[in-house]
Amino acid sequence: MSRTNIKEQWLDVWIYFSLALLIVTNLKGISAQIRVEDVNDNQPEVEITSLSSRIPEDAPPGTVVALMGVTDLDSDSGTPSLSSNVTVNVFILDQNDNAPVILYPVSSNGSAEGVEEIPRNVNAGHLVTKVRAYDADIGYNGWLLFSLQEVTDHSLFGLDRYTGRIRTLRSFTETDEAEHKLVILVKDNGNVSLSATATVIVKVVEPKEAFAAADVKSATNDEEDNNVTFYLMITLGSVSTLFLISIIVLIAMQCSKSTDYTSKYLQETNYDGTLCHSIQYRSGDKRYIVAYGCVAHSVEALPISGSSLIEEVR
User: Are residues 124 and 198 in the same domain?
Assistant: First the structure.
């Protein structure tokens, strides 16, 4: 019986009374009301009635993400309590809220300006420079496009729309100006595009001047390379010297050990070249060494350890 389906119900209960001595059985019927007590045996049921699975990143606080309805077939807050859970997946949509940032060119004061020098005798297709930029937005909002917003001579310079590379379109002539100003517009691909600009000043120099500038740069690089080589040689020389000193010390230690070992284990010889022989024995708490075949010496008693003595005889 479940109280969920039946809360109150009238039941007819028949009570039978019988007596063994009576032939006729008396039957009486009564009505009783039975109340079924609730038991906490149903978990809460959660139903999502409305869901906004895609929320823009600039949504204000309090934006409704989902509407849910919760029901429980039980009527009390029973013990132990039962629970349910539901998973809601929400995708945060990127908004075009970041403007492109110019990485190159950048001047010393932080503005997006730069100066490039190229020789006058370069051919068409010569790479002048490359404008680099990035956008913090993702997806289509982060795609960048480059365009020439301002240029002194459109027949001289061309800009790659996707890479930002600036190249010459033709060779320079004597009538071309020595300085050209290029303003590059960088914009993203958002619904409402954000943009930034960079300025490149191109100076056309004679080949000799260009080579002189290249020589200065090359000399600076060579000087830096020479400094690195000098420090590297000093380091290698120091390591080699320490290694040689270590080898010499190890050889000296080995030679000294060999000399000590030889002198320790060689037998003593007489002045006439004959070897000395000895016999060791112990008597009581004394230890004796009897040597024979050696040059005559006076008998001496030498303490060995504690009360031990050594007697030396011919």
Answer: yes
